[in-house]
Amino acid sequence: MQTARAAWRRLEPVHGMIYFVPEARRRYADLGLSGRAGYFTSRSAAFGRASAELVISTFYNFNPDVVRQAVDGAWDATTPQQVLDARYAAAGEALRRAGIHELPTVDEVLALTRRAAEAACEHAQGRPLFAAHAALPWPEEPVLQLWHAQTLLREFRGDGHVACLLSEGVGGLEALILHAATGEVPVDFLKASRAWPEEEWAGTQERLRERGLLDGDLLSPEGVRLRRHIEDRTDRLALPAYAALGDAGCERLAELAGPFGSAVVEAGLLKLG
């Protein structure tokens, strides 16, 4: 389970960069989508003309008011297919800028990642955001095939994570605050990107203290146990994808994935702004 998680985490920048790169912002702006509208419509375009309520439901931890403001009217400016085309074009352009296509093990990494992603497609039930992306056709270009495969694995894991949060009675804002309390991601970034009002953040934070999950702004011992439990369950729910690789395949992918994530970081594809 730990090896599978390492394989996913090390390759995740190959997908995650799409939320930061200027190539994506420019292409969305050309379609009349600016600011948050580009993010919400591009990630939900696989659903078709997704309503704000569908995005709120599947994205889970964003301020619903901000989602409605970003999504309402967006599909009057463009179409889901145009947004999908822009997203894939931006992904390819950015990954080529990072030199991903020139890495010597790209064919092997693609083969392993695609095998895992295709295995995940056999377990789509209960994973709506993943299922929507799994229904999209595979791109022809290898670098885009790699991006698509990692996108599927990200959304497969993400839908499982939401299921774990729901089963533990952890709401979207509560999950965000517990994540912030780990210190793994800057609090200011989470507040800015998820856009919850400060008073709601503070009120929810206080309720988590009353539940014994926070000690000040940090996780309490009980909070640490809950976070670990949720992450472990998320890992287990992601295993159907990586089981197709076997232990040796997971170890090999974890070994090879590092330079791909590093190339994305070194090219500045994860920089804010």
Structure, described:
It is a single chain. This protein is mostly helical and 273 residues long. It has 15 helices and 2 strands. The protein has helices spanning 2-16, 22-30, 36-44, 52-59, 64-71, 74-77, 80-97, 106-120, 128-134, 142-167, 172-180, 187-194, 198-210, 221-242, 246-266, and strands at 214-215, 218-219. It has a two-stranded antiparallel ribbon. A hairpin with a 2-residue loop joins strand 1 and strand 2 (218-219). The longest helix is centred in the middle third of the chain and has 26 residues, at 142-167. It is globular and about 50 Å long. It starts with a helix and ends in a 7-residue tail after the last helix.
Lateral strand order in the biggest sheet = 1-2
If you average the pLDDT, what whole number results?
96
Order of H and E elements: HHHHHHHHHHHHHEEHH
Strand content: under 5%
Helical/strand content category? mainly alpha
The count of β-strands is 2
Pfam family, one: HTH_67
Protein name: SalK
In short:
The protein is mainly α and 273 residues long.
Notable traits:
273 residues; 2 strands; two-stranded antiparallel ribbon; mainly alpha
Helices and strands in order, then pairings?
Elements: H1 2-16, H2 22-30, H3 36-44, H4 52-59, H5 64-71, H6 74-77, H7 80-97, H8 106-120, H9 128-134, H10 142-167, H11 172-180, H12 187-194, H13 198-210, E1 214-215, E2 218-219, H14 221-242, H15 246-266
Antiparallel strand pairs: 1-2
